[in-house]
Amino acid sequence: MFFASDNGGPVHPQIMARLAQANEGHAMPYGKDAIMDEVRDAIRTAFEAPDAAVYLVSTGTAANALALACYTQPWQTIFCSTTSHINEDECNAPEFYAGAAKLTVIDTEDKMTPAALRRAIEKHPDGNVHGAQRGPVSITQVTERGAVHTLDEIRALAAVAKEYGLPVHLDGARFANAMVTLACTPAQMTWKAGIDVVSFGGTKNGCMAVEAVVFFDPKKAWEFELRRKRGAHLFSKHRYLSAQMAGYMQDDLYKTMAQQANANAAHLAAGLRKAGATFLHQPDANMIFASWPRRIHQALHDAGARYYIWDGSLEGDDPEEYIAARLVCDWSIGKTAIDQFLSHF
Amino acid sequence: MFFASDNGGPVHPQIMARLAQANEGHAMPYGKDAIMDEVRDAIRTAFEAPDAAVYLVSTGTAANALALACYTQPWQTIFCSTTSHINEDECNAPEFYAGAAKLTVIDTEDKMTPAALRRAIEKHPDGNVHGAQRGPVSITQVTERGAVHTLDEIRALAAVAKEYGLPVHLDGARFANAMVTLACTPAQMTWKAGIDVVSFGGTKNGCMAVEAVVFFDPKKAWEFELRRKRGAHLFSKHRYLSAQMAGYMQDDLYKTMAQQANANAAHLAAGLRKAGATFLHQPDANMIFASWPRRIHQALHDAGARYYIWDGSLEGDDPEEYIAARLVCDWSIGKTAIDQFLSHF
Amino acid sequence: MFFASDNGGPVHPQIMARLAQANEGHAMPYGKDAIMDEVRDAIRTAFEAPDAAVYLVSTGTAANALALACYTQPWQTIFCSTTSHINEDECNAPEFYAGAAKLTVIDTEDKMTPAALRRAIEKHPDGNVHGAQRGPVSITQVTERGAVHTLDEIRALAAVAKEYGLPVHLDGARFANAMVTLACTPAQMTWKAGIDVVSFGGTKNGCMAVEAVVFFDPKKAWEFELRRKRGAHLFSKHRYLSAQMAGYMQDDLYKTMAQQANANAAHLAAGLRKAGATFLHQPDANMIFASWPRRIHQALHDAGARYYIWDGSLEGDDPEEYIAARLVCDWSIGKTAIDQFLSHF
Amino acid sequence: MFFASDNGGPVHPQIMARLAQANEGHAMPYGKDAIMDEVRDAIRTAFEAPDAAVYLVSTGTAANALALACYTQPWQTIFCSTTSHINEDECNAPEFYAGAAKLTVIDTEDKMTPAALRRAIEKHPDGNVHGAQRGPVSITQVTERGAVHTLDEIRALAAVAKEYGLPVHLDGARFANAMVTLACTPAQMTWKAGIDVVSFGGTKNGCMAVEAVVFFDPKKAWEFELRRKRGAHLFSKHRYLSAQMAGYMQDDLYKTMAQQANANAAHLAAGLRKAGATFLHQPDANMIFASWPRRIHQALHDAGARYYIWDGSLEGDDPEEYIAARLVCDWSIGKTAIDQFLSHF
């Protein structure tokens, strides 16, 4: 009954098998391994982007911060939503990697709206040396509140950015989960919608520690390589990053695991809804924000369930008081565990 | 016949087994996994340092840059040797992590001498606001030219640093290889010799991608955690870093592998010596810098041997001309491969 | 009829005289000049702070960014209002000087409220490594919309900060103008109200280019000196900064000029009010935000009046449409110019 | 008898007069003042560079650090001499402004040699992601040891840089002093010799606090403006920077003052030579490094002479022991003071 995060689950056996298989003899370090060639091809194929520059790093924060840094000057500001991971959960890594650039948070409910984005951009008039200059727009898909932008929504945000000549980054830590929800292709959710660079997440979706950064225009390739090395994110034994990603792409495992994770969440959400829980946000993919009485929380906790309390209201002790919880399902959680969880309602 | 680097070899089966074993069920992320407790204990025990703060990262550059950043103000300079990894091979990562601090390279032959270190420190007089201020001293053990500092040499360098109140960092990417050469304990080579913080390498010595940073005084612990997160080096699925290090420490595997690597290098060096190769540096651990005629190089290359040419003189084509080579042995290279290599001389 | 900014006016003759007087013979550079001793004494006396560390720089942005950097770690966030100069008008200088720290903007109407500040601080829970850590609170006095915080308001904001152990900075680019409005002493508006460090502005109030940074606790003194030098803000011919500040403090010239500036603004505001202009903000000191028909704007413009249009609505051409304007009065604007300006209404 | 530095002398009356003249009425801030137009024209004319981008800042360190930052990526290294001001006297400002780039010091005697520069560049092979990448070359003219590069020497260094496609910066804090020595034009010493950007010093040569940064290719103009603002170096009351530079350029005052300073140094050097002092460096412009017995030093000191001891050997008390001194002459030192100084030998 582990719902604390999708980063708490195990690595898929297919990926473990690729790691074991990669572990034979010697290999050239620093990304010159043969498996990386396979990975590059697989990702270019999946994204229908034969010229894309493809790189691997080991954390989602590294993927985001390095990708954004390639498109941000130190005197610019990155436009993002208040709830974005880059704003709330990266301890100033984007600012650090972008040379002390700023983040402009767009204070709408979770998802940015095109109108709010436009207003934020307009507040930074071109040619005004006094304020931060306009920088890239970063969209989080799935959002940190569990919502999935429709393709239209992504296109509309990207269109505003393009109108001002600004590049667009997609934080896809849960890329596959969103794809499954939208029943779309990687290309549709990225370059066909106006995305310039994507953090294509693996870690949260059944890998060990690997994320791809995919640039649809390869002109930033060498700069990325230098930034990755300077950030201490270039793996010497790179074949083990490659092997994870190779296993992840093989036979569309990334989709399969995302389908499982989303199905798990749907099953859990259905049960919670039936049990009368209140939903704080619409659960579009594999994350659920919901609320129930403290006494149920206590029972769940005693039974070993793990999830985050979302509003810090645990100081009270009224058993009828409601607590809010965040639940995230990974691919590996079985229906049994979910039903066991629901049995406490 | 892979001698290009010790980062080209496979992961030891004992470590792979620990990874497989760790891959069961769910675990708390971000270093709260139970295996990390085991690792912390094992490292504290090995270093005879019950209060040490112990952290894991995935690259040696991250270990060095983060460890040094905790002891460096942006207006200071880090004292290191010209040949140090932090100077030559980290693409400004130490400067980046230390907020744009400087490196003062001490231009002696490979190892710093205490006298040269003192001169360099004295060139930065205390209280002179115009120049870079004195910062930490960083010692590389094994050096990037394959030399091992004796315990006396480390003590002497640390003593100079301490005289000026400066902290001392040990870049131990090949820590175990040096230990084996010196037949000493981890404590003797670190805090007992005056080291404040050590990058304790795993990756080059049979791990997949893991280095420990060990602070003998834990007062920098929280700062390190923040710097690690900000640098995008905090692993969510941390148990897989922990598992590697747990396997590495278990039954002193780190020593066993270093013994194998050093023995391999000794066997190779003996053969090369016998074959008349000239040595550029004394091979103290698992690295060899030697020189032989181009025609032998060509034969080795054709037979599939892999190593770095050290002086870039390959443009010529005189078969009697000498080339210089760097050869590094990891734990996994068998005597057969070495003897096959030597057979070309 | 120059109302574009208080940085458009001339330097007061008393300050010019001090500059001329300072220009005799040779003087020790870098702040070791004798006039700086006089300045230090004068500011300590004015602020009733005999131990204060006092430094001079040449721009307000430098004063703010350097002062804040001394109290901000790179992984922290500075709490400020949306309309603060450090957020809107310093092109990421605070982030740059604070090593890529973040600014958390508190989106209230101009002035921060204690409740909003508390909410913003609480959103960054102590000990959460994922988010930006709590850093200093920065209050702008006079605000960039012309409002003056009462002493009670400053005390209340500082009290919230202190409750969380956070330092408090006052951006006093228009310090003297606020003092005059409040009829208070420098000490009352700073350390007696809970301020730890103040940017005490000179440039906008009749100096040429000088701001003092005053630390009430001198423990940051040496760090400031290093940061100032590293930021390229240490003047070699420092006596000319000192002379400006000496002239500014002499016979309370800073108060006299602020009184004149505020009186000018009051006269202008009264006239505008009489003429039926609408006020966007309450003009507490020497800044006015008001609105009137475009045809009046056109007449003023044609007559040579200079001020900033505040809302960018100039694209239209309906003479009855209203435009919003920002007007700032410096000490030197005479009643004649103001009356001439008003005559166009 | 002030020889401590050329930054200890007074501002020339012609410049003070321009400041007084500029101090009338209101002026547009931030470089939009009319005097700046005059300055831009004057500098473009003097440098025979009609398209040059011209900016003013208030310190030499700001000029150097901002100019270099426009040509340096954070992962690059700046090639400079050990004795350069950017290496020894700017407390990591160049590293700070260049986003944590490195300085590679070329350890020749004071001036870089083309051969040593080439070796240093070659040590950073193109396309090697591990080391710092090649960045700009910075030449100091006059050097910090008082030497003047000949035009041939500058051309030869710039030619090496160009061969590798690297930009070249000239730190001309004492630009006019060098020009006078070489009897050349500004253009000959800069773009005609291969310089891309120059810090054209005013402060040390009779101004109050002003340096021009001149880009011969204006494509970096907007980036410089943003970096200057972000560095807190954009003056609001910019007309007072402009007025200084206008006075400095008017009737070639910059040459006149440099001639006076160099003539003063020549007179002093001749006297010292006659008196038997030993010269540590050849005094090419207005700086002298020489050595004499401690008893003479004591007598000079007692008589009020001010200069820096160069080797820190003052702990001894043997009156026959030699001390080394640095003496710098500014434009204002009269022959009387020099002769008075020499009378102690």
Brief write-up:
Chain A has 345 residues and is an alpha/beta fold.
Description:
The structure is a homotetramer of 345-residue chains. With 345 residues, chain A is α/β, with parallel strands linked by helices. Chain A folds into two domains: 241 residues, Aspartate Aminotransferase, domain 2, CATH 3.40.640; 88 residues, Aspartate Aminotransferase, domain 1 (Alpha-Beta Complex), CATH 3.90.1150. Helix content of chain A is 39%, strand content 17%. Chain A contains 14 helices and eleven strands. In chain A, β4, α7 and β5 form a beta-alpha-beta unit. In chain A, α2 runs parallel beside α11 and α12 runs parallel beside α14. The radius of gyration of chain A is 21 Å and the shape is globular. The two termini of chain A are 14 Å apart. Chains A and B meet through α1, α3, α5 and α10 of A and α1, α3, α5 and α10 of B.
Average pLDDT, all residues of chain A: 96
N- and C-termini, Cα separation of chain A: 14 Å
Amount of helix of chain A: 25-40%
The CATH architecture classification of the largest domain in chain A is 3-Layer(aba) Sandwich
Oligomer: homotetramer
By secondary-structure content and strand pairing, the structural class of chain A works out as alpha/beta
What order do the helices and strands come in, and which of them pair?
4 copies of one chain form a homotetramer.
Chain A: H1 13-22, H2 34-46, E1 53-57, H3 60-69, E2 76-81, H4 85-88, H5 93-97, E3 102-106, H6 114-122, E4 133-140, H7 151-163, E5 168-172, H8 175-182, H9 186-189, E6 197-201, E7 211-215, H10 221-230, H11 239-249, H12 253-274, E8 278-279, E9 287-293, H13 294-302, E10 308-309, E11 322-328, H14 335-342
Parallel strand pairs in A: 2-3, 2-4, 4-5, 5-6
Antiparallel strand pairs in A: 1-7, 6-7, 8-9, 9-11, 10-11
Helix pairs in contact in A: 1-11, 2-11, 8-12, 12-14
